[in-house]
Amino acid sequence: MRIVTLHDPRRRGTWLTELRLGDYPVFLRDARTSAERNIEGKPLRAGEPSVCAVFDSLDQATAFCGRKVREMPALRCDIYDHRGLASPPTRSFGDREWDPGPRTLLVLALVCVVISVPLFWFDWHSRGEMILLSILGINLVAAGIRFLFWAFGTIDDQRERSKASAKMAS
Known about the structure:
Elements: E1 2-5, E2 24-30, E3 51-55, H1 58-71, E4 75-79, E5 91-94, H2 102-125, H3 131-169
C-alpha cells in the first residue's frame, strides 16, 4: 500500500498521474455524512491533506477495506480502478444505500406484476366500481417495469466491469 496526496502543489499534474494500470485507490469516508477520513479512518484535522491508499491488487484493497470496516463500522470504503473517480467504485464496503443484485430486482419485478393481476381481476368483477384497485395495479405494473430496467442496468454494469477487468488482466 502506498499513500497518495490528492492535492500536492509540488506535483505536476493530478493525483491520477501517480496511478498505474492495475492500481486500486481506496477512499475512506464517513458512512452517514460522506465526510472525508484519513487512512486511519479518523476525521481530517485542520490542514491535514486529503489522501487515498493505493493498492497493487484488488485482493489487497478488498482485505484492507474489510478490515477497516470491521474495526470502524461507521466507515465506508470505496475501491476504484486506475481511472480514479471517473467511474463508479469497483467495490464499496460499509454502511451504504440499498444496492440489490439483479436476481433480487427481477424477483421484485415479478412480485409486483403478480400482485397486480388479482387487483385487476377484482376491479373487473366489480364492474369498475373499485377503481382504486386498478389504479394500484397500474402502479404495481409500473414499479415492476422499473425494477426490470434496473435489473437489466445492473446486469449490463456487471458485464462492463468484467470486460474491463479482463482487459486489464491481459
